[in-house]
Amino acid sequence: MTRSEENYLKIIFHLGGSNSTPITTNAIAEQMETKPSSVTDMAKKLAEKGLVNYKKYQGVSLTDQGTKTALSIIRKHRLWEVFLVKKLDFSWDEVHEVAEQLEHIKSEKLIDKIDELLEFPKFDPHGDPIPSKDGKFMVRDKQLLSEVAIGDKGVCVGVKDSSAPFLKFLDKNKIALGHTIQVLEKEDFDQSLHIAMEGRELRISHQIASNLYVKKNE
Amino acid sequence: MTRSEENYLKIIFHLGGSNSTPITTNAIAEQMETKPSSVTDMAKKLAEKGLVNYKKYQGVSLTDQGTKTALSIIRKHRLWEVFLVKKLDFSWDEVHEVAEQLEHIKSEKLIDKIDELLEFPKFDPHGDPIPSKDGKFMVRDKQLLSEVAIGDKGVCVGVKDSSAPFLKFLDKNKIALGHTIQVLEKEDFDQSLHIAMEGRELRISHQIASNLYVKKNE
DNA sequence: AATTAAATTTAGACAAAACTAAAAATAGGT
DNA sequence: ACCTATTTTTAGTTTTGTCTAAATTTAATT
Ligand SMILES: [Mn+2]
Ligand SMILES: [Mn+2]
Ligand SMILES: [Mn+2]
Ligand SMILES: [Mn+2]
């Protein structure tokens, strides 16, 4: 498995290409920051290796083997992110870039030992689940803050957009995973929310609310 | 800097190509497990970038910039080796292969934090010195056990051959860095040594003795 | 000094992963 | 059903790092 092949599999998985849902050439090209013609070439190569299903003009989906491989890369990526935050004091907006490199290190023992050192975390710093060695992971029932009804409370458990600018914005406004949020009011005009959190009240835009996941309290 | 360029610089350094000592094409090819013609190609490219001095048929040596780069790769390699041993319980014969990959991860912050986590170690698990950020490192006055005079004592501080088979042999015979060794007798016939170490006596071949570094006691 | 052996470089080719430009297939709108 | 816009594929290049085979230079030996 080359680094490039691994990145393609990971991206196809993230675009939903597991469960034999076909993903378009253009969608993959956009995520890979490459050209559609390059995606076609790689689709053929991965199909040759039995990692994806590919029929001309019909898009690409992962085989079981391809899904398994994608999950093992994602497992490594997220474990390294946890490592960087918990053991090396990186902030959650700095880890993704480095994890993009570390995820390609080939050593089963290494990642198992990292997992052990971190005491087998189930979620990464952005709230995304960490697949186990055999490719299983928790699906947390969560919803976007923008879809929570007025008056309801929830715990912030993840971000949808994990870009550095968004994460830095959250830091600046002291919004962090684990905080409890109550929706006080929704502004009809611009969909902004008035929320209560950790003993203070603040107003956040729809754009922010639709990139924050909360787990509703029972 | 590509991974391949980094590996070439590291190998030229290890062959003594710092201090403007020219290293032959063949020697580099052998270490890189590649063909001499490939080395010539790379020599041109590295010369183009100002990392090596290269004149046709005259061998290759590192420039100051090339030496600096080589030392930063070696620094990363050795720090990762310490990390693997101290934090993840790898044995000293398992770390080299993984460090060969980790040494190419590009993040200044990452390696500085690893350095800090390890409390700024000065030597790697094989007794090799770890260069500082500015490329300085300790030169320990050590000598091969095979060159120690009869009756003299020394502390085992490093290995010359750090291949897995040799390291495993040392483990099996409970020879480890930090142990004090006294040479009791040298066998004229096969140059084997009779030594005392940690309260027991044993006989070791010349081949072993000439791959173990000791620091003589004053 | 001439010959031979060894080391090194050149020339041409290849695989991986990307690109551009052109051709082909699909999907939408009338 | 036809035309058009979009998507996708093909064909032909490029770059990086390698290779083989042939040519050249250097070193060693007579
Ligand atoms: Mn990647
Ligand atoms: Mn993440
Ligand atoms: Mn390397
Ligand atoms: Mn070492």
From TrEMBL, chains A, B:
InterPro entries found in the cross-reference section: DtxR_MntR_Metal-Reg, Fe-transptr_FeoA-like, Fe_dep_repressor, Fe_dep_repressor_sf, FeoA_core_dom, HTH_DTXR, Iron_dep_repressor, WH-like_DNA-bd_sf
An example Gene Ontology CC term for this record: cytoplasm
Domain HTH dtxR-type: 1-63
Species name: Flagellimonas olearia
Sorted UniProt keywords: Activator, Cytoplasm, DNA-binding, Manganese, Repressor, Transcription, Transcription regulation
One Pfam family recorded for the sequence: FeoA
Family: Belongs to the DtxR/MntR family.
Record's protein name: Transcriptional regulator MntR
Function, as annotated: In the presence of manganese, represses expression of mntH and mntS. Up-regulates expression of mntP.
Quaternary data: Homodimer.
Main location: cytoplasm
GO molecular function, one term: protein dimerization activity
Organism placement in taxonomy: Bacteria, Pseudomonadati, Bacteroidota, Flavobacteriia, Flavobacteriales
Domain of life per record: Bacteria
Subcellular location: Cytoplasm
